[in-house]
Design goal:
Keywords: Metal-binding, Zinc, Zinc-finger. This is SWIM-type domain-containing protein. This protein is 37% helix and 22% strand. The protein is an alpha+beta fold. The chain folds into 6 domains: 76 residues, no CATH class; 76 residues, no CATH class; 97 residues; 97 residues, no CATH class; 118 residues, OB fold (Dihydrolipoamide Acetyltransferase, E2P); 64 residues, no CATH class. α9 runs antiparallel to α10. The radius of gyration is 32 Å and the shape is globular.
Length: 599
């Protein structure tokens, strides 16, 4: 017990009044086993040392009064109360008093890391978790934990972490373990139903699937989401969407798109069930804002995504989108004036800043939820947490966005055949990296900015990492110039008024050949593509075709793929496609030329 604890239990004003009482006179006290009898200012009472709320005073005030607080302060200051024993923690009683909902939340969160600190001051323990503080002298009931602004679940979580420090083991209640068993059984049942629905679609064949075949998958979308299997639910949506676009003839009718979605859904079904634990509500999360990027899908949906980078290089995003082009979407207006959260600045003002969030919530796809509880509490100028100054160390498949720090500009050209800008930078080791921007008539400023980058020294460039065919491409969307402080958007800011490249290109009007190697597809890549296309014809391949492909795969040393063609299981060919998909991703052409590879 100390003055800070008394202020939390009552109020700072009442503690000040109690100190004034002590300045006038000292109480007469008599210490019993767990209480102290006292008299002061003509009143008398009993102070319960273990639970002050059970104390009594003869004055007219109901509850804790200045006399009780004064006696407590006197005991603290005079050290009449001997060194108290370690505060007792009773996990079973705590969980029972906190209620089942709080216990369920702690069960979901207890394996996650939290911003936690626990300190002991005599008989009082002070705990701070995720920016919220509470204190206690004993923990046998949820009301023993003093901190009005802290929820029951956070208090219980804090006590759990404190118990771990003290070596106190928690036994989860039987009702919770029964619930978890029922949940696991329900999840397995859903996965079985999902696998059966996928099998019905898979065995029909891509070209013969109609809307009626997709009904079982559609009926499982909501149950999967409610059961916490959000990845599987989203995968079902993507499979259905891919089939519907294929059936209606919308966009390119590519069987590989459907096969990829089917294979991804099968992988999700067959992975071990593990309950997803969300890091929602963590305080003081600081991210670096890379800026906004506009986009438009093949189906007509369009929007703008603001991108953030965490301290370990992980990318998080938040989006504003429209489902179709029926309504005009002004991406520049959204980027310059729209607040993604009530307390935040627009995306263009957040770009290039370290942004501190309070109560940040993210879903399983690393998208930041735009909830009312999420607050932007501070912004300050900063630099990206993770950037690549050595192009040979880039982890290409780790994140969908990266930041590079080039040493110098190398080359710029507009490829007429591919209708795209290709700009090259070099690092200090003379490794060459190529950035690619396709010509986009609806982003005229982006095209001008690409032309203006020739010879311009830049400090950082934020890029989108995408896979196109057998190549990985980098598409820049924001940068910071070497002599500048502000970050600039290639879509919405004018980088430079100079246009030396365009003037020279118009004058000569000569199409130069690209300096980027590897545009040609290798024989191995072509073979893998042909094999992927052949798998799309399932289940209508002949036995002779199977034997031919088994021979080709064995010649390449791909024995696992050859074995899958024997179809010992209903999904063996789909698993074969997924293995092939991973193999093709590992064989993509990278947009970097290492100095030692130059001829």
């Amino acid at each position: 017990m100390n003055q800070q604890f008394l202020e939390q239990l009552t109020s700072p004003g009442l503690v000040r009044r109690a100190n004034k009482v002590l300045q006038k006179e000292s109480p007469v006290i008599h210490k019993a086993q767990s209480s102290i009898e006292y008299s002061i200012e003509g009143v008398a009472g009993t102070l319960d040392v273990e639970d002050m709320t059970r104390s009594r005073c003869s004055c007219s005030v109901q509850g804790l009064c200045k006399h009780l607080v004064a006696v407590a302060l006197f005991v603290i200051e005079s050290e009449d109360a001997c060194d108290e024993k370690v505060p007792a923690v009773d996990p079973d009683a705590l969980m029972k008093s906190a209620g089942r909902e709080a216990v369920r939340k702690v069960y979901k969160l207890y394996t996650l890391s939290a911003s936690y600190s626990g300190t002991r001051d005599g008989a009082v323990v002070h705990i701070e978790i995720n920016g919220q503080a509470f204190s206690f002298t004993k923990a046998q009931h949820i009301d023993d934990l003093v901190g009005d602004s802290v929820s029951k679940a956070e208090k219980l979580w804090g006590i759990y972490l404190y118990s771990c420090e003290q070596g106190v083991e928690w036994q989860w209640p039987d009702w919770l373990l029964v619930e978890q068993t029922q949940i696991q059984t329900s999840l397995k049942t859903l996965q079985t139903e999902l696998k059966a629905a996928l099998l019905c679609v898979w065995w029909v064949g891509i070209h013969r699937v109609r809307s009626a075949h997709l009904l079982d998958l559609q009926l499982l979308i909501i149950p999967l989401a409610k059961a916490g299997l959000k990845a599987e639910s989203q995968a079902c949506k993507r499979v259905i969407g891919a089939y519907q676009r294929f059936i209606s003839g919308e966009g390119l009718r590519d069987e590989l798109v459907i096969m990829t979605e089917l294979a991804y859904l099968l992988v999700l079904i067959e992975k071990p069930i593990s309950e997803a634990k969300s890091a929602a509500g963590q305080d003081q999360t600081t991210l670096f804002c890379l800026g906004p990027e506009p986009w438009q899908s093949v189906g007509g949906a369009q929007g703008l995504t603001i991108l953030f980078q965490s301290s370990n290089g992980q990318i998080f995003s938040a989006s504003e989108a429209r489902a179709n082009t029926s309504g005009h979407f002004d991406s520049e207006h959204v980027a310059r004036y729209m607040r993604f959260w009530e307390t935040s600045k627009p995306a263009m003002e957040l770009m290039g800043n370290l942004v501190s969030f309070n109560k940040l919530e993210m879903n399983e796809y690393d998208r930041i939820r735009r909830t009312q509880s999420t607050e932007v509490i501070a912004t300050e100028k900063g630099a990206p947490f993770v950037h690549y100054a050595d192009f040979s160390t880039i982890e290409w498949l780790a994140e969908p966005y990266i930041v590079i720090a080039p040493d110098r500009f190398h080359h710029l050209e507009f490829d007429q055949a591919l209708q795209q800008f290709q700009i090259q930078y070099r690092d200090a080791n003379k490794n060459t990296l190529t950035l690619t921007v396709p010509y986009q008539c609806n982003h005229a400023l982006l095209m001008k900015n690409m032309a203006a980058l020739e010879g311009l020294p830049v400090k950082y460039i934020a890029c989108n990492v995408s896979e196109k065919g057998n190549q990985i491409q980098l598409r820049p969307f924001a940068l910071q110039q070497s002599d500048g402080v502000q970050w600039q958007s290639l879509y919405f800011d004018q980088i430079s008024t100079e246009s030396r490249f365009l003037d020279r290109w118009r004058a000569k009007f000569i199409a130069r050949t690209t300096a980027v190697p590897g545009r040609e597809i290798t024989q191995l890549q072509q073979l893998l593509v042909d094999f992927s296309r052949w798998l799309c014809a399932f289940p209508y391949q002949s036995d002779d075709e199977v034997r031919i492909w088994q021979g080709k795969l064995e010649q390449l040393g791909l024995y696992q793929l050859s074995v899958k063609l024997q179809q010992n299981d209903d999904f063996d060919l789909l698993r074969c496609f997924y293995m092939l998909h991973c193999l093709r991703k590992a064989d993509v052409t990278l947009p970097v030329i290492l100095h030692g590879e130059c001829t």
